[in-house]
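Lecture notes, unit on protein representations.

Consider one protein chain, 782 amino acids long.
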Amino acid sequence: MQLLHNRLALAGVGALAIGGLGVSMMTVLGGTAAAGPGRHGEFSRLATYPVFQNVPAGVDPADATVAEISAVSEDGKTLAYTDAAGGRIGFLDITDPSAPEGLGSHDVSGGKGGSPTSVSIVGDYALVVVDESPYPGLEDTEWEDEEPAVGTRAGRIDVISLAAPHEEVASYDLGGQPDSIAVSPDGTYAAIAMENQRNEAATPAGGEEGDLPQAPAGSVMIVRLDGAPDAWSITDVTLPASALKGLDTPEDAEPEYVDINADNQLALTLQENNGVAIIDLPSATVETAWSAGNAVVEGVDVTKDGRFNPVDTIDAPREPDSIQWVGPGLVATANEGDWKGGTRGWTVFRAATGEVVWDAGSSFEDLATKYGLHNDGRAAKKGAEPEGLAFDTFGGVPYAFVGSERSNFVAVYDMRTPSSPKFTQVLPATNGPEGLLPIPSRNLLAISSEEDSAEDLVRASVSLYGFGRKQSSSFPTVESASQDSKPIGWGALGALSKVPGEPGKLYAASDAAYATGRIYTVDVRRSPEVIRDVLEVTNASGEVAEDLDIEGLAARRGGGFWVANEGATGAGNALLRLDRAGRIAETVPLPAEIAEKVGKWGLEGVTVTGKRASEQVYIALQRPLWADSTAKKPGVDGASTARIGRYTPATGEWAWFGYGLESTSVAGDWIGLSEITAVDGDTLAVIERDKQNGTTAAIKRVYTVDVPRTGTTGLSPVKPLRKRLAYDLLPALESTHGWTQEKLEGFTVGADGHAYAVTDNDGLDDATGETVFLDLGRAFKR
């Protein structure tokens, strides 16, 4: 029996579009208070544009460059974004939203210095607010965490032409440090939140480090947009303590975010003050201000311990960041937190009184867990950290968009009943989604992200999503069911296995991203796949086993599992035999002579053939053997030959076979094996991949090899087996129109005869967190 070599795959899989022949990706809508899939249309990702591709000539593309806040021209075809890291405003042509093009940038730092914090567009101009706050003795603006002085706050607003070469046409000193800007719907006003933010390393008299008050207090600048840009007028609206009664430290106002409604009322968050103010722009007066209050949120995980344990309760001030008008007399806030609080959700308030109309509770955090985006590294801080919030109408339906800065997603809600928002779908984002920009005139949503590190292959981007398009969504492809009223926690799926005799089910396992070994039961009979159950691996005494790194999983015909446990060193690599309950019944280390030649890249897959006395266990070693455990010099098999091992439990014997790896010319890259699966008694399928993601990803393939009856023993040289390409999965991964994932790590042939593959999301550690699960169709020739 042979693995079906997909003709499209052999041709480069250019036609492997979502839902097309050969590969399917499952779509999903659902979650807490879910509306039905596609009931009111949905958003599908069209393109992801890494903004390093738009840096000026002479700038190293590896330099940090971000896309934090974005705005769009009146015709919806030119998008501007702030690049604080580069000191620029970038421009993109989004005429074709499936293929955005860079239009260059404007250097706001120039001779005047400073870093852009926000941008809005009115007519032919981009209005850019620039932070010029220096710290004594420093040449840049990164004074916030420096001691001991509080620092000077300064900033300006630059007016930039949208037309190339994007020249500055006017500039105004603001006399303080700006944060956000918004333009009124009628184009009459711009409003700027002048934060004059606190220095988190400074200690005010009588307080602790980072406390308020830290003079000067913030304010709001109102720009009257009459006539030419160089003739505009600016009014400073102060926020005295008397107007902010009931807020935290009202004598030091800390404005954060602004939004303007059709009546020219400004909604303003004061994040560290835990408050909201409503300002009438024509009269430049504060109409009301009220505390956002505390939220008691039950069922969240507040411990950074590598476990999913949503049993805690927080009682904290909301400390809202973004704010939006979401209906007559109603505002909504994203409760990120900064100084004392953050409540991991968002809230709808009555604007006149501050009465809570609706609060998300733990439901926003639950979305992260349900879709494999729980960020344990942030559990002890602010969790999923809702920061961005936007609101607009698509297809006659009002929607709210809430962005998770730390779990890299945007949740979409139907707001036709603002007192009961209905979650409709989740949109994946690259790392640190900050700017959420609805463009309803073109049925588009833009999401801009601010995290960027070329060294870690994390690049900031602008992603575009289309509304109501008749195409399948590429995310999510896996979700979890609930147990005890909470979604099953999952992520870092590094291994797949069939469930013998049960079509429609698979097993999957998490790797060392989490503190315990977790084996999931996955229902593949519906779209998307659903994780129905989880089994934690235990030791011989029945206690949960810790510090496992499950990189391979194979269900045994008679029940139980073989697990490939990768060690930090060669000696730590071992096969684990588990019983049906997940208890470790046997540990089989690698032969000593092999283990001492394995560096930190060890076991990366396990599969099993036969049963009882005829059972044989195959393993894949990710990289070649080395001359010694330092993994600096190739060993006996050379630099491009990895090993496949065969272990016979009945005799305890090992046999070894060679596997020839592809080559790479990318600096710092290497090619290795990531999975092994038995197709039949003597045919194995392996994943071979590079270490690249995004624009540099090149090798994400499944090959098959036929294994002879006899192999070599010990360190005797091995001859590479003849390999055949079964699937080139790079085009399928690229067809998501997102950031192409690096770790194609799981592959199996299910009891239904279909081949399946999955990517490992690394538990969001220097990764977007997106999981791609592929149904490759029938795997066997008839």
